[in-house]
Design brief:
The protein is an alpha/beta fold. The protein contains 13 helices and 15 strands. It folds into three domains: 5-171, P-loop containing nucleotide triphosphate hydrolases (Rossmann fold), CATH 3.40.50; 184-359, Rossmann fold (3-Layer(aba) Sandwich); 364-441, GMP Synthetase, Chain A, domain 3 (2-Layer Sandwich), CATH 3.30.300.20. The structure holds guanosine-5'-diphosphate (2 copies). One guanosine-5'-diphosphate (GDP) binds at residues 10, 12-18, 31-33, 38, 60, 120-121, 123, 146-149.
Length: 444
């Protein structure tokens, strides 16, 4: 996985190399008092409080031609900025703004790269006026900074974070997201006799799944692919669906193995319930298994054609699900009849929608705007009088959507607060009832 790229921009002698060395941690850049000593573009892997990115130190701009950027330097810098996720624009707050700073600012405003303004050499108070002056560059509030003394790093961290969509967090492996046009990988699970085989046969429109005896009971699963409204669906067809176990007492065992296999395969798992029997403990166990595996889930109440007291039944199952299965409160609950085919179109539509939510990515900026509102509406608790500080959130992967929140003293955060945030993510960021993973980290 490639690291996000951050470029350091600024005229000579403002402290770019010093900043580079501070973040990359090695003395690889040449630091000199003479303007223009820094020439080449250097790159290094930077680490700021556990946040990793690729740092590019651009060539210094030549000063002699004060009003215009020398073409060669400018081209090189331009290339660096264009390839960067964020630009750190460094000024010397002691020297104050000079025309070349204005020139660089004008030019940076014309690019699409987000800019963070760093008022360097601001240790002590010697840079105060330069810090205020730099507001006029039009990049918002500058970060008072000292590359030499390591001041302002926490503010830089906070400012940088929302811009980086691709934060490298150790031990998290980025998966390749499959495109929305890839076949929907679906599995149908449920207790024996819930109607799985009947459902699969009905969807496929032919009675070919439980035909005639096959030799032995095979564990092999095959995938059946077809199109629904122009979109491909791939359904796992397990041994248990193809053919019923002959030996009655093997039925449970076989179906447990099939269930695990099917869940493993699928993006969306349809949990089929038998409406004539209602919700049973084993159904909740399977639901829990689907959730633990991070799969998107749709629950369908089958045999609706023969269900009695339909509205009371439906509400009862809805209630029991939400009570017994709080993790995915609100998981889609549909009514179908595998025998008549009623509700199967809706089932497939909802399965596609659920996969979309499961695959969704929220840009870090939008995510953090939501996060700020959520913290404001209900601030984290303050155990022992010291408030737990949550700084920012980032989505580290999708399928299932997984988020990390960075902050301090996060180990003291109560589970109820985590649930508050997870529910907010689901409700307000369009994830619906898909399982959302949320972990916390304290940068060292
Ligand atoms: P560059 O040309 O932008 O890469 O600037 P350098 O990193 O080479 O720094 C130019 C000069 O400014 C050097 O003498 C540094 O020691 C000094 N310098 C860099 N950062 C700071 C700082 O935070 N405070 C002060 N007082 N001096 C700094
Ligand atoms: P599986 O063990 O989950 O694969 O269940 P089957 O597909 O073998 O179905 C079990 C029994 O329920 C069979 O007798 C089916 O005919 C019956 N069945 C399945 N779906 C429906 C339905 O929607 N309505 C009715 N009335 N019966 C159904």
């Amino acid at each position: 996985m490639s690291l996000p790229v951050v470029a350091i921009i600024g005229r000579p002698n403002v402290g770019k190399s010093t900043l580079f060395n501070r973040l990359v941690g090695k003395k690889v850049a040449l630091v000199d008092d003479r303007p223009g000593v820094t020439r080449d573009r250097r790159e290094g892997d930077a680490n700021l409080s556990g946040m990793n990115f690729r740092l590019v130190d651009t060539a210094g701009f030549e000063e002699d031609d004060a009003a215009t950027l020398p073409g060669r330097m400018r081209a090189q810098t331009q290339a660096a900025v264009a390839g960067a996720d964020v630009a750190l624009f460094v000024i010397d707050s002691r020297a104050g703004l000079v025309p070349l700073d204005q020139e660089i600012a004008r030019w940076l405003r014309g690019t699409n790269t987000p800019v963070i303004l760093i008022a360097n050499k601001a240790e002590g108070r010697a840079g105060d006026s330069g810090v205020y002056e730099s507001f006029s560059l039009g990049f918002g509030e500058p970060i008072p900074f000292s590359a030499e003394h390591g001041e302002g790093l926490a503010d830089l961290f906070d400012e940088l974070m929302p811009h980086l969509d691709r934060i490298a967090v150790e031990a998290v492996v980025e998966e390749d997201d499959e495109s929305p046009s890839a076949p929907l990988k679906m599995a149908i699970v449920g207790r024996p006799n819930a109607g799985k085989s009947t459902l699969v046969n009905k969807i496929l429109g032919e009675e070919r799944m439980i035909t005639g005896p096959e030799a032995g009971i095979t564990r092999d699963s095959i995938a059946i692919e077809w199109e629904f409204e122009g979109r491909a669906v791939r359904l796992i067809d397990t041994a248990g669906l193809r053919r019923k176990a002959k030996v009655e007492d093997k039925l449970e065992k076989l179906s447990a193995a099939d269930t695990a296999h099917a869940i493993d395969f699928a993006e969306v798992v349809v949990l089929l319930l038998d409406a004539t029997r209602g919700l049973e403990a084993q159904d909740l166990r399977i639901a829990d298994q689907i959730f633990e595996e991070g799969r998107a889930m749709v629950i369908a109440l089958n045999k609706w054609d023969v269900a009695e007291g339909q509205s009371a039944l439906f509400n009862g199952v809805r209630f029991a699900l939400d009570e017994g299965f709080a993790q995915v409160k609100g998981v889609p609950l549909l009514t179908v009849s595998a025998a008549t085919g009623k509700g199967l179109d809706v089932l497939l539509k909802v399965a596609f929608e659920t996969r979309d939510a499961w695959s969704k990515r929220v840009p870090t900026g939008e995510l953090n705007r939501w996060f700020e509102r959520a913290l404001e509406a209900n601030p984290p608790p303050a155990p022992g009088g010291r408030r737990i500080k949550l700084r920012y959130i980032t989505q580290i992967k999708s399928r299932p959507p997984s988020f990390v929140i960075f902050g301090t003293r996060v180990d003291q955060l109560p589970e109820s607060y985590r649930r508050y945030l997870v529910n907010g993510i689901r409700r307000e960021l369009g994830f619906g009832a898909v399982p959302v993973r949320l972990t916390f980290r304290a940068p060292k």
